[in-house]
């Protein structure tokens, strides 16, 4: 089996004591995505040797390596061998190519503007390619592509997402995954030829079963008789696209979708990953339909079946490779170990080159924000000679990337030096100030460790000792809390510095007060809004644009559904990806009541999860990314007024790309623009380096911060009350 580690590819024996390890590649460059040719003569892989990602092949008998392609582009593992090992089809830059393995001659076959092609395989006769692609309406279909004529045939023809197509070995059916069943990915199979009879007719089924039994008996006789007949050439593929959507038959169903899958050698069984009541596992189902079977439990990643489909290799755990016999589900780990020599200076160059290349091909703006990207690389690369650590390599790459003046970018990785954590500070949930030669409690965090009904502790009390060690003003009491033996610490407190009414209080400490401090801040803001608005206006804060914060927001909208207005505070929110859900809730309007005879008149409003009154969104310069997308959508949809100061101007949809040493680079690949039907493609303002301005400008001055006065929040309350007084929302109710 071929494995890669730190950019090197090795062949390792699958059985202990049988065979030896072989190193296929050895350099500071990154070699990966290896695939054996069908005949086992070659190993193809992707390498950035020479600072460009290209397809390479290694001849296993001689060790000779050759670069096959010369197309400067980002390449992943989206390539497939032809059955005769003479060609490789691959996808790069939204283009489908085919390269001749012997000559390296590359032919461009097709282009798809919308994300290119998801390549699956060649047909058994090598004349067709199977892939899925999305059209300009974002509809994904499975296609057969005839290489010689460059003719494309849609073999799914469904408005829902169809993908991951695979031909049966005899070339008569296409198996694929589809979201046409309630949006869940399930397996379907369709005959490529028009049906001449009803496949569900009991007589047809009986005849087919008899034929299958006869074929099995004939094959058995052949094996017992020792006949070694030449394998018949695969029959030509015939496609009748008319009516193929109706010919598709669903194989799997239920709430749990299908992950990866493959077919048995005879094409009669589909093996797939999914989940049942016992957890994740590998399952099988007859291609003609029927009940599924749990083959084996556990996770199965990157499944690679052998040519005879009797054994599979798969990943499980951290870097582990296993193999399993499909006949008895016996699983064994492939045990191997090898050393990889790392030339640090050469690897730093590879990291630098890959960071530059990843940004070149994955950055959302092909014009690189107007920068000469080649010239920037030439400017920074000579500095490689002066770095001495991986941190230096990261910093150099980040200096280069910083020339783009873009957000959501950066190279990072583990530190070269690991530091053990020596202690965890125990926090009792109080703040202390020096007073009269002692320490006095200046603040007690609401719902914190020390805010319990069984504790006799309040602001103004003096702390005389911690865990039996006396403390006086000016002494470093953190030394005690840094090395507390237990979770509980004993505070010796008194009403006065001389020890009046001294008492011991056992407090169960925390190692972080972040959430407690946050909740106290939110509740303080809510109380301020309720007081200033006389209970008319509700207040919610969205901490982050993630699922947990969305759940809190939904719950609070349910709580405040009958408020006369609301302030939605997204200050200090670093972003995420829940703008659609938040705006969907905020733009809802009541339309009916289903009012029970015995219920109050306010009962039964539809929808309940909505705010009928004025809405104010509160922003500041620390509202970033998706918490900038949200207020711009809030404004464009006319949902209310925005108060505060301009947002951070850092909006790109980003992802992460893993580097050779285990570090990563953030790669913003998607443009984020406003919707403007007057502009080409409906693309309006680019939100990167834009910043959403408020309708009412206000900011908290340093003096406000010192005095604990939230001027921004006060302005938001005033704006909500002003809007409510205008009567534009036609609100009637009890409020509060």
C-alpha-based Rg, rounded: 33 Å
- The overall pLDDT, averaged over residues, is 94
The SS-based structural class is: alpha+beta
Number of strands: 45
- Indicate the proportion of strand residues: 25-35%
Q: What is the helix fraction of residues, given as a range?
A: 10-25%
Biggest sheet, in brief? 6 strands, antiparallel
Number of helices: 12
Oligomer: single chain
What distance lies between the first and last C-alpha atoms, to the nearest angstrom? 67 Å
As residue ranges, the low-confidence spans are 223-229
- What's the overall geometry? globular
Structure, described:
Mean pLDDT is 94; it is low at 223-229. The longest helix is centred in the N-terminal third of the chain and has 24 residues, at 202-225. The chain is 20% helix and 30% strand. Helix 7 packs across helix 12 (711-726) and helix 9 runs parallel beside helix 10 (626-636). The strands form 12 sheets. Strands 29, 30, 31, 32, 33 and 34 form a 6-stranded antiparallel β-sheet that branches. The protein has a 5-stranded parallel β-sheet with strand order 35-36-39-40-45, with helices on both faces. Strands 4-5-6-7 form a 4-stranded antiparallel β-sheet, with no helix packed on it. It starts with a strand and ends in a 10-residue tail after the last helix. It has 736 residues and is an alpha+beta fold. A hairpin with a 5-residue loop joins strand 10 and strand 11. It is globular, with a radius of gyration of 33 Å. It has 12 helices and 45 strands.
